[in-house]
Amino acid sequence: MLLCLLLPLIIVRFFSTREYKNELYENRANDIMLQTEMLKSYVTTMTVSVESATYSTTSTYSYDETAFYDVAVIYDARIAIINSYYVVDYDSYNLYEKTTNLNEAVVSAMNGTDVLNINMDDEYIETATGITNSKDEIVCVIYGMYSCCDITGLCDSLEWHLNIICIIVSIIFIIIIFIYIFIVQIPVSKLKNQMIRIRNGKSDSHIKMPRASFSELSDLAALYNDYVDKTTRLDNNRQQFVSDVSHELKTPIAAIRVLSDSLLSMEDVSKDMYKEFLTDISGEVNRESKIIDDLLTLSRLDSKTENVNILEIKKCNVNEIVSYVAKRLDPIARAKNVDITIKESKVVIAEIDEVLITMAIGNIVENAVKYNKPGGFVTLLVTSDPRDVTISITDTGIGIPKEDLNNVFDRFYRVDKTRSRETGGTGLGLSISKNIVNMHGGDIFVNSETGIGTVFKIIIPLRYISDVTKEGNDEK
Ligand code: ADP
Fold first, then answer.
1. Among 396, 411, 430, which is best to mutate for testing ligand 1, by the most ligand atoms less than 8 A from CB?
2. Over pLDDT 70: what percentage of the chain?
């Protein structure tokens, strides 16, 4: 992966310096050509008569030495003028004047072909240009050897800088890759392996993330651990519930079996005895059927919780519901010498499922009567604030011990098993009530003192907000 990242960088670096060097040499060559053209204008050609045996004429020329010298200095070049006899008339280095020069480029220019040689390896540009007279005869050649060491220096410095950039970028890449490997890749594969091990049951159910891992990954692991905890809890609860249910259902059946077996084993049983046994059997049958009813209610509520929004919500008068519950339970209360009173309060209208809320309040008021003392009281009060309605159910009964307060809403939980059995309790009433109130977005709170009494407070929002709407708002 590192190579994939660095290879393009190295290629770009190599080609960019090469291209840049070519361009610099080309620009320099163009510049030199212009200078050579200019130098040509500093050479003046003329034709003179020469007294000789053949009385012929010959060409000669003059030049501005200063101009040649200046160009030689500015371009760090050696410039020479070679006449048609290949003799050096001018040399900016003053070394080879009056010597013969048969340089290949000079010979070529003397024969009419100007020369421009770019030699990047030896870092110079060579030029040879012929100067012609009025008869188009070449009278001399301007020869130049221009040093290009400065271009090489510039390119070397550029290369050096690019190398440094390459090294820095490589180091950054390496650091990023290391960070990626240590903070992302290793923890992710660890997470995956642990999940696979947990799935295959080869490890305990919790994922342990290394400290250095991404906080998002740690959050993910924590969420996964929470999820595993929740499913384990649900699984345990389900198992516990199934064993509780079978135990609860078995108890009345066992009692019926004992009662009927003993009845059958007796001889000459009197009519009164039959009646007594059958009454007990009928009581156990009623209990069994009550447990089954409550279980069915719970199961219906659970399926309602899963299939959100199937509550039959409408605006209801909460005071009327409370009055109805009180009226319905009044005969049982009277039988126990318990007085149910409704405290005067203003009318409260709430968006609720009337049948379910009636059941929830009914269970709690029924308990307030059931676990009361003869001559005791049950007081009902409906109050509201701009957000919620509160239904308070206060009794002067036996109360609930502090250590049991947190458990009374658990399924099949009873503070006093025998007493609850006597009163026909299934241990599911409060659990059903809490379920219903929670489905409405509310909650139930309990406060109690043993021997003095208990207060249950049902708090429900006045406006029902469905889980679908809530989820929508949460997403926003
Ligand atoms: P049950 O059908 O046994 O009444 P509940 O779920 O309604 O089941 O109540 C759970 C337990 O909480 C009861 O068994 C009882 O011990 C206790 N409890 C509930 N309400 C009261 C109350 N008002 N006063 C005293 N104890 C109560």
1. 430
2. 88
Helix (H, G, I), strand (E, B) or coil at 147: strand
70-83 pLDDT, tens digit per residue, is 999 999 999 999 99
**215-302 architecture in CATH?**
Orthogonal Bundle (1.10)
The predicted-structure confidence for 393-429, as pLDDT tens digits, reads as follows 999 999 999 999 999 999 888 888 776 666 667 889 9
In this predicted model, what pLDDT tens digit does every residue of 331-372 receive, in sequence order? 999 999 999 999 988 999 999 999 999 999 999 999 999 999
Among the ranges given (86-95, 183-192, 299-308, 460-469), the one the predictor scored with the smallest mean pLDDT = 299-308
CATH topology of domain 313-475: Heat Shock Protein 90 (3.30.565)
HSE on the CB side for 32, CA within 13 Å?
A: 29
CA–centroid distance, 425 to ligand 1, in Å, is 8
Rounded distance, CA 129 to CA 40, Å? 9
Domain ranges of the chain: 2-45+59-154, 215-302, 313-475
Distance CA 68, CA 36 (A): 10
Give the 3-state secondary structure of residue 453: strand
417 alpha carbon – ligand 1 mean position (Å): 10
Q: How far is CA 21 from CA 25, 30, 69, 154, 467, in A?
A: 6, 14, 28, 9, 71
272 sits in which H/E element: helix 271-306
Domain 2-45+59-154 belongs in CATH node 3.30.450.20: yes
